């Protein structure tokens, strides 16, 4: 027995054996350096061991869609509003506050704190203008991250929108393709600078922003660049009804067909959302061709229920996508970035959609947040606890009201737990969360600074026609 091995004893350990998660009761998880060395029923003589008591060890979650540098900026703006002419979307013509570079730094830190506290040891960050900052911050915090290098037919800082609505009911597209190709070159540079850094914890993916903020030529070039560098691709697609309609009007194709025809779909692609596919009850093309294309290309979907339920719609449905051969993983996307809540919403939403409790169960959602996410990133060593896998795991405190009594830790966490049920998190064998707090960070002072930045930015925000923000985005109750 090597002295470098440390054992963790827990009431339940979710281990990986013969192609499935399994529950080891009153067992021991062995960690050696940054990897799992195995698991046992008995402690070898003389071995080092930490007894976690009434706790469960679960694999770290692999989160397939996040926006750390900007996730909080739309809080209290995006909810309960939207343009009825664009299917109640806020995407086309709603102004949002810009919180500047310091705002991006604070949001990145706070969001990564939020993510890891909910058990996400790996996060796919959709990087926009601040992808270098996000890669650096995740790396320094000891997290595992895949950062999408933003690509769009416009400026790097995303100051100007690619789509415009001059009148609140029509949409025009202003593709600056030359800038778009420059963004691809910058994405390649980011990959060369950061892919595999921070002891192999930080990776880069090509990140075209949306199907309708890139041209077909740019999507083809992105595929070439990704293949050349051996990195994956992530893109927002089929996330908005106006986007679906716009794509059909402009190209005569659904957003999924556009990606298929430009060669973008494949096993190495993570499609954020992919909700409005043909056959969805709210779109006007009824065939199930899109799901067939996604399944036949073995594409991966990042499922983030919150932003869709929040506007009264959802993916139709988790079980149907899985039946079509689509690898569905979980993402948190918006606020709150809480994987435990997101898993519960995904389960409830699927059951509501499928009109049965049997088709999508806790194990399907747990698999989505672990092994499906790992598969989407081409990783056999994440999302599972077995010999040779990365030592990325969380410890669930079973002594809390929401987890008591705990017979089936997976069901209890998904149907009753909260992110506060997770007390400790390890990435690559190193502890990053202790007693529910990220080591070495003062969350409260970061929150106070972000509040002050928000208050300044809200004062400056104006609509095109001079409306006040309170008129455009009504408060829940009037100010007095
Ligand atoms: Zn997103």
How is this structure best described in words?
With 480 residues, the protein is of the alpha/beta class. The chain has a domain at 61-376: Metal-dependent hydrolases (TIM Barrel, Alpha-Beta Barrel), CATH 3.20.20. It has 15 helices and 19 strands. The protein has helices spanning 100-117, 131-140, 177-194, 197-200, 216-229, 241-251, 255-261, 289-296, 305-309, 318-323, 339-354, 362-376, 409-415, 443-460, 469-472, and strands at residues 5-17, 20-32, 35-40, 48-51, 55-59, 61-66, 120-126, 144-151, 163-164, 172-173, 202-208, 233-237, 269-273, 300-303, 327-330, 393-397, 422-427, 430-434, 437-438. Strands 1, 2, 3, 4, 5, 16, 17, 18 and 19 form a nine-stranded mixed β-sheet that branches. A four-stranded parallel β-sheet has the order 6-7-8-11. A hairpin with a 2-residue loop joins β18 and β19 (437-438). α1 (100-117) crosses α14 (443-460), α3 runs parallel beside α5 and α12 (362-376) crosses α13. The model has no long low-confidence stretch (mean pLDDT 96). The structure holds zinc ion (ZN). The site of zinc ion has 6 residues, from loops. Residues 65, 67, 126, 236, 272, 333 line the site of zinc ion.
